[in-house]
Write a structure and sequence with these properties.
The protein is of the alpha/beta class. It is built from 15 helices and 15 strands. The longest helix has about 35 residues.
Length: about 425
């Protein structure tokens, strides 16, 4: 190795962002192992590489011991022998002799090359990991590079910049085709470090994909004027999304749909014609639950705040629409609101049923309100107990002598028995 190698190493360090000192230290450690392996040395050795010229020297290290303690001549040297080299040596000092082999340069070059290649790979893996860990929960665009089948389940690999994303079977949209070379958008679910390249788990089925697509497509969402309050999704079939506007002049649903449906159409095309229901969010749970069952019409909504459930009455001809195919509409509405929803047709809900239900709800909702009041009262008491008023401070005033005694007592409590005796003396 020579000056050219050191210069090339410096350029590589700048290009790959590798720490130069760490790299040189790693090379020295590897050269130590290479020396012992190739020359069968049982002695302690130290490899020194000149960071400016690249010259390498190997030193044998022996510890100075008393004659009576000499055990291994490879690792130790008597004090008398050591003082023949330098009279200042004492027991415990380390004596070094240069033992650089004539052909060690060739071995050193091969070893250094292997270490540099290894460090480059490690650096690239670290850079890739750092790049993608920042993209977790974000949208990325990638090209499908290969498709494999494991245990009868398809696994899709996607090239995303310098990284490779893994689209597991559970994260795929049912029925969606994944052809090699096709470019698609994906949601980054998680990024994990491994011994090789970072593992990037991506998804087409996660509701976060739809959320990020709307954020990208709708400027009002980007600006924070329109907020996505909740979402529920059955990938490939239907998504429900509740939105709210912080500006009364802006219609949140209209902003998401776009002129003649242009914005939502772009998202539907990306998702393969998946249906998207956009509803208006409301803090009034009865209104929110009614909206969540869109496109069905609702007659009445009875909410039970105690157990977060609701009974919804719909016209008979709207029952199948409210429930949806295989219960999908009701299921997505329940997930969207995070409430239990019981849907009943008008014909199965008499005036007597309504009277009994209202009586039960009056009791349950009263209990729920009382529970909330009790919690708020407890919090208020805790907050009040932590406060000390000015009048209370005055009540606690003590004179200087009492303060001095109090400090002494407090100090004594923190001491051990032995320290207390010393303190009293």
């Amino acid at each position: 190795m020579n000056t050219e190698f050191i210069q090339a190493l410096g350029e590589l360090v700048k290009e790959k962002g590798i720490d130069r000192d760490v790299l040189l230290e790693t090379i020295e450690q590897a050269l130590t192992s290479a020396y012992k392996k190739n020359f069968g040395s049982a002695q302690n050795v130290r490899v020194d590489m000149n960071k400016e010229t690249g010259d390498i020297k190997v030193y044998s290290q022996r510890t100075v011991v008393d004659e009576s303690d000499l055990y291994d001549t490879f690792l130790e040297i008597e004090l008398d022998e050591a003082r023949k080299v330098n009279p200042n040596y004492e027991i415990g000092d380390v004596l070094e002799f240069e033992v650089t082999p004539k052909d060690f340069g060739r071995i050193a070059a091969q070893t250094a090359k292997q270490i540099v290649v290894q460090k480059i790979r490690e650096s690239e893996r670290e850079m890739t990991y750092n790049e993608f860990v920042e993209k977790q929960d974000e949208l990325v665009t990638g090209e499908i590079s290969r498709v494999t089948v494991r245990d009868g389940k398809k696994i899709v690999y996607v090239q995303i910049g310098k990284g490779e994303g893994i689209l597991l079977h559970s994260e795929q949209i049912p029925g969606e085709e994944y052809k090699i070379g096709k470019t698609m958008k994906f949601y980054v679910v998680e990024v994990n470090k491994t011994n090789k390249n970072p593992q990037i788990i991506i998804s087409r089925a996660h509701f976060g994909l739809v959320k990020r697509l709307f954020e990208m497509e709708v400027p009002e969402i980007q600006d924070g004027i329109v907020q996505i309050k909740s979402m529920s999704r059955e990938a490939g079939s239907r998504t429900k999304m509740a939105v709210k506007s912080v500006d009364s002049k802006i219609d949140p649903i209209g902003a998401c749909v776009g002129t003649q449906g242009s914005r939502v159409r772009n998202i539907v095309n990306e998702l393969g014609d998946e249906k998207i229901d956009i509803v208006k969010y409301s803090d009034d749970m009865a209104e929110f639950i009614e909206a969540s069952l869109s496109p069905s019409k609702v007659t009445k909504v009875f909410v039970n705040n105690k157990d977060k459930s609701a009974v919804v009455i719909v016209p008979d001809f709207q029952l199948s629409l409210a429930i949806g195919k295989e219960g999908q509409n009701a299921r997505l509405a329940a997930r969207l609101t995070n409430w239990k929803i019981d849907i009943k047709p008008e014909s199965d809900f008499s005036e007597e049923d309504e009277r009994l239900l209202l009586e039960k709800l009056e009791i349950d909702n009263l209990e729920a309100e009382n529970a909330v009041d009790d919690i708020e009262e407890d919090l208020l008491e805790d907050e009040f107990s932590d406060e000390v008023t000015e009048s209370e401070i005055t009540d606690f005033e003590i004179d200087d002598s009492e303060m001095e005694e109090l400090i002494k007592e407090t100090h004594t409590e923190d001491l051990t028995d032995e320290e207390v005796e010393t303190e009293n003396i």
